Amino acid sequence: MSETAGSILATSDVLQNIHELSSDQFNMGNETQIDALQIGLKIGDNFLFAGNSTNIGMEFTLDNDLVSFIKNGMANENGELDLNYSGNFDALGMRFQMINSTYFGLQRIFLDEKLRVGVTYHMNNYVAGAKLVANTFSLTSTENTATGMNSLDLDYDFNLATTGVFIAGTPLDSLNQLSPDAILPTSFLDNGNISGLINYATSGSQSNGTFGFGLTYSPIKQIDLQFSMSGLGASDLTFSSDIGKSLSGSATVDGFSYSSASGDTLASAVSSTIADYTESIQSGISTDLVDAMQSLTYRTPQITNVSLSYNFTKYSYLGVHYVDRKHSWNDYTYLGFNTMIWLGRNAQLKGGYYMAMDEFHKDRINAAVQFRLTPVVQFYIGSTTVGDVATIGKEVLNGRLGVGASTSSINVSAGVSMAFFDKRFKKDDKEEKAKAVQSLSPADQKKVDDAQKNSATTKDNK
Q: How far is CA 447 from the centre of its chain?
């Protein structure tokens, strides 16, 4: 969210809370990253890897003037009616996109395992997207000198662009024809067409390719220096949408007066007059969707990571990490301190504190835990918003639903991984056995020394 929960939920009157925000609009979005498959194979000094992931993003923008109108009508916050009201609601909007990425990479070891260099190639497919923009959306009240009453003028002009969202050939000539049954992935689920859904989610009508690289240098055994960048060489995708629609028009709503006649009743004449009046208002507002050329745009995020780690044991470390993300819906820059604690081959803990380097984000506390469920299966769960998740969890345990006042986002990551032919622990076991053979206990060493002395004495007596 563009605001904190403490601002939005300050009182039970949510509309009033939004109206009192200092900004002109309120944004609320969701981003979901699904890493469906990652495979790696080590061959000598080379490590080959490939994977597939899907990113789904959605964001709504609510105009605060519209919230105020819904809350107070043409009155101000003190309840005073403004007959010369003018409301501009054109910040209202929505956007959605679904991107599938298939990547391949190679990492090679140099300088006796002190230097590792890796490169990746990503093929990004634009699976689906939608954008709703309000070019004009306003309501104005003016005095009609001829009737002595006021007139309301409604102007609206919306553009809708979609690709990969609706079933091809579906008639969309009116707002009444927009329904869940016309949505393409919904039709796959309703028909049980899982293979069709998978094919839909892993292909797209538009695509681009990007490169990435990474370096890890260990000047000494305890120090690791890392630098990586992804999203390089990306070209912005701008293309005509599969469906482009325009909804526009204007309507003037005049006041009305009624003079009763003999025999009129509320059930007949008055109600009939009101019905005719509301019908004239509805007929003046169009719900027709007119074909119009529309376009969609996608920019590939570019991410930079720089880190320095000190390994205080073979698998545990303390480090400093800088991360920067741009060309995305959610750009950020953080500098953090993190650690990974190795509790054995069956459990590992990771955590860190990250400071936001801009005024749009807040500092974060990260934490993650990984469990070894079987010799080859590991389970991972973590969050970059530990404090917020902990607050929500505490409230749930107490039978309530609540969030922290400073909460503006919630992040949770989870996954399952499998490692086959992992020789690290076998190698460690061999090293431990070798050390055990090479280093005898004092008692065993005394036995060896005594045996040598006895052998020497026997030789001297001969």
A: 66
Return the structure tokens found at 72.
């107070």
Tokens of 317: 């470390």
The DSSP code sequence of 231-279 is EET---EEEE-SEEEEEEEEEEEE-------TT--IIIIIHHHHHHHHH
Task: Pull the structure tokens for residue 247.
Answer: 């909804």
* Residue 125 in tokens: 């497919």
* Contact partners, residue 358, CB within 8 Å, separation at least 6: 332, 333
Gap between the Cα atoms of 167 and 182, Å rounded: 6
How many separate helices (H) and strands (E) can be counted in the chain?
A: 9, 19
Question: What single-letter amino acid sits at 423?
Answer: K
Please name which of 216, 189, 210, 215 lies closest in space to residue 200, comparing C-alpha atoms. 189
Which residue type does 142 have? T
Give all strands (DSSP E) within 80-148, no chain letters: 86-88, 93-110, 115-144
> Residues 93, 132: contact at Cβ < 8 Å?
yes
Q: How many CB atoms lie within 10 A of CB 200?
A: 19
Q: How far apart are CA 198 and CA 123, in angstroms?
A: 17
Ordered DSSP codes for 373-440: -SSSEEEEEEES-HHHHHHHHHHHHTT-----TT------EEEEEE--S--HHHHHHHHHHHHHHHS-
Supply the mean pLDDT for the chain: 82
Model confidence pLDDT, tens digit, residues 401-440: 676 667 777 778 888 877 765 565 555 555 555 454 455 5
Low-confidence ranges of the chain (pLDDT < 70): 2, 255-284, 388-390, 392, 395-396, 400-401, 403-405, 420-462
Check if the beta carbon of residue 30 is closer than 8 Å to that of residue 57: yes
Distance CA 327, CA 303 (A): 9
DSSP secondary-structure letter at 146?
Answer: T
C-alpha span between 298 and 166 (Å, rounded): 19
Distance CA 431, CA 423 (A): 12
Q: Residue 302 half-sphere exposure, CB side, CA atoms within 13 Å?
A: 10
pTM of the model: 0.79
Can you tell me the distance from the alpha carbon of 323 to that of 354, in angstroms, rounded to the nearest whole number? 10
Radius of gyration of the chain measured on its C-alpha atoms: 33
Would you say how long the chain is, in residues?
Answer: 462
